[in-house]
Each structure stands twice: as structure tokens, then as C-alpha cells.
Amino acid sequence: MTEENWRALLRDASQLRTAGQIPEAIAAYREALSINPDLPDSWFNLGWLQRKTRAFDDALDSYQRALDSGVARPEEVHVNRAAILSEYLHRPRDAQRELRAALDRNPDYTPALVNLGNLQEDLGEAEEARATYSRILEIEPTATLPLARLATCSLSPELDTDLAARLRARMDQPAATNRQRAGLGFALAAMLDAAGEYDEAFAAVTAANEASRAAAGSKGVYDRAAQERFVDRLIATFDRPVSATETGPAPLFICGMFRSGSTLVEQILAGHSGVTAGGELDLVPAIVAGTSGYPEPFAAADAALFARGRGFYLAGLPEQPGARMVTDKRPDNFLHLGLIKSMFPGAKIIHTVRNPLDNLLSLYFVHLDASAAYALDLADAAHWYGQYRRLMRHWEKLYGSDILEVDYDVLVREPEPVVKQITEFLDLEWEDSLLDFAQTDRAVKTASVWQVRQPLYARASGRWRNYERHLGPLRDALAEAGIAADE
């Protein structure tokens, strides 16, 4: 084939990629590269498209071919490889090596440094993370993200007044965007909270949530009526227990409200020789997002549809050599327990719960993305909580024997009996390592990363009392949602 032919294929591939016709674009790139494999940018584009389709091993191979072919910005390719290895293939040490390779190519490449700092936090390497964020600030003194991350991995009962002053000064700059003010404000609030400066912390986190809402625009508005309708539709669609007898492998789903203890439960179970911790997997949300008009298409779905979903899910799980069970601790999977039980009738669910005031206050202090718009306002969060409880009551009626409720506050006060209850529910043999979870070196991707690396503690139980003077409106909103604040 002539040069003109493969160049035409590349033009077609580029147009297909721009038009969002990903499978067709992949096929065009593959055909062009089979004729002329010495095209590093095309290998890069192919890797990007393969990542979009979750063909992660293929994407890694294509990115490597881009490197081997002399791509112009190899550090960018290494960062893309690191993202796949960390986020999807659960190979954090391999991801670290890719980031180090990027920095060998370009020591000042801040995207690699930012990702390295995040990964060091996930792995519990606090000093290393602080050094990495400090290095970024040497390169880009006005950068806000590394400053905020430096603050959140430097929490202490003794307030670092210099670091707090740097956060405030950066927030006060006229050029600071609402998004930047939000990130800095949440970090400042966390520092003040850790130091016991509760009134200042509440003022800081309120301003941070307001800035986050302003940055999100219309996406930062929580639609209460729409959430009620969605819960109605879920209940109507999944209105009876599944009758299938599928006995294949089933993950353990750990879910509930964000900040209700799901990470702690998974971290404890990760200490068992028969359990692989999967973390917050995006597999169920991917199935939901790929189903137009969800949830109604599943109301009259045949077994083949659920089998396809099950196959997609199992193919995306992390490797689990020798493990009997893999966990999926994405909290908002509680929305989709009807779908989950339809795909995995034998699946067991651990439902983590916590005092509502503590739970919603903790949520208010976390910088979540716009998809959790309800968290930006305590009254909206109370409404969401009421809808969550309504839906969980429905799932419990259908699948009560397969759902174990684990109370975070009880777990941190008396861990051993609760952990024994969990192992009995899961038919796991007791292992003493279950209570040594703080020693694990696995990556933990969660807003509570530093908490779950400490021995069990009860400081977070009753935290709301530190903010009691500010929580009258939240109590009222919970009461309006039919929730007793101290349940």
C-alpha cells in the first residue's frame, strides 16, 4: 500500500476519533500502523482510545510502542501509563516506576510530580508526599493544588500557622478562581479541625463549599425532586427478589453513605489471606452509564443482559491470586443493589452506617466533585440521606439476609466482636491479622487515607459535638426528612 493510502487512513482515524466513533477509529489506527509502525503519535492516539474502551493492557502496549518509536514527549506517555496502572489495574508500585521514568526524562514535569504525590499519599508515604508537593511549589510557587495537598497531609493538633497563612493568602488573591479557593478552603478547614479550632474550621469549610458550588455552576445544584423520582424508579424497577440461581463468583460489595466507614471495613478485611481489596471500583457505575434510560431497561431484562453485565464486571476486577473474595467498596453502589443482585444473586453486601450528624458533618468537610452536589449544603445532604435510608429499607426488605449492617461507631469502640460478626457473615475463618490493618502497605484511595492507616480510634465518633452550635439547621433538616439525628 502506498504512503498516500496509510496517510488517508490516519486522516480517517483522526476524524473518527474527533467524532467520538471510537471502535472505528481504533480499527483505522490499527490498519495504518500495520502498514507503517513508525508513527509514535499514532501509537499514542491509539493508546488513548484503547484506554477509553477499557482495553487497558492493549493501551499499555500502544503507549509502549509510542515510547519505543521516539514520541516527542515521553514523560506524558509515562504519566498516562501510570494512570492506567494505578487507577484501573491496581498496580501502584508499577505506577510509581512509570512516574519516576517520566521524571527521569523531565525532572520538572509537574503532572508527574502531582500524580506521584497523590500515589505516595495512597501508599501511606507521608514524608515523601510532603517532599513531592514542596518540590512542585519550588517549580510553580503560585500553584494551588500542591499547596492544598501539602496541607492535608500535614494535619496536626498543633496548627502550622505559617502553612495556614499561606493558604489564606493564596485564597485572598484576586486572581484566585472559585475552584482554587474551594480546594484551599477545604485544606484550611481540615487543618483547623485537626488543631481544635472548630468555629474557624466551620467558617472555612462553609466558605469552601460555597466556592465549590460557584465553581460547579448549574452542576452544583442538587435537585431534590429529581432524586426522589430516581429512588421511586429504582424501587419500581427492582421490586422483587431475583429468582436466578447463579452460583458463580461474586464480589463483596461494601456500600452506604460516603464517610460512613466503608474504607475502614475494607481495610480490615484486606488483612485476611482470602480477601483482595478492590477499592472504589467504577464497574457498576460504568454499567449504569452505558444503559440508556437506566433503570427501566432492566425491568423486563432477560438473563442474557445480566450475564453481559456480570461478564463486564468480572473482566474489570483486579487480579486476586489465591483470594476467595474481592471487595468493591464504592459507597454509592447502594443505589444499584437491585442491579447488583440481578447480576450476582449470591453477592453479599456490607452496609456501613454511622451517626447521621457525624456522617453528614464529615461529608461537608470533604471536597467532592459536582456529581455529589448534595454535599455542598447540609440541608441538601440531609435530604439525600433521607432518600438513601428510604432506598436501603427497600433493599433490606428484598435481600435482608444478604445484607449486614455495620455500625462505624460500634466498630471503633469494640472492634473484635464486630469483625468476628463480619467474618461469620462472609464464611471466613478468623485471622488475627484482621485487627492489624494499619500495617498494610496497599494503596488506599480515599479522603480518609491517613485515618485508616492508624490503629482503630473513636475520635471521629461524636465529632458533631465540636460543632453543635452550628448544626441546628442540620438537625431540623434531618427531622424534616424523618431521620432522628442521634439514630
Structure in words:
The protein is mainly alpha-helical. Among the domains are: 77 residues, no CATH class; 257 residues, Rossmann fold (3-Layer(aba) Sandwich), CATH 3.40.50.300. The chain is built from 22 helices and 5 strands. Helix 1 packs antiparallel against helix 2, helix 2 runs antiparallel to helix 3 and helix 5 packs antiparallel against helix 6. The protein is globular and about 75 Å long. 42% of the residues are buried. The model has no long low-confidence stretch (mean pLDDT 91).
Strands side by side in the biggest sheet: 2-3-1-4-5
Name the average pLDDT. Answer: 91
What fraction of the residues are assigned to beta strands by DSSP? under 5%
Overall geometry comes to: globular
The appropriate CATH architecture of the domain at 224-480 is 3-Layer(aba) Sandwich
Q: Cα distance, first to last residue? A: 72 Å
Biggest sheet layout = 5 strands, parallel
Helix content: 55-70%
CATH topology-level fold name of the domain at 224-480: Rossmann fold
Radius of gyration (Å): 24 Å
Structural class: mainly alpha
Number of strands: 5
What low-confidence regions span 5 or more consecutive residues with pLDDT below 50? Answer: none
Topology pattern, helix = H, strand = E: HHHHHHHHHHHHHEHEHHEHEHHEHHH
CATH class label of the domain at 224-480: Alpha Beta
CATH superfamily of the domain at 224-480: P-loop containing nucleotide triphosphate hydrolases
Specify the number of helices: 22
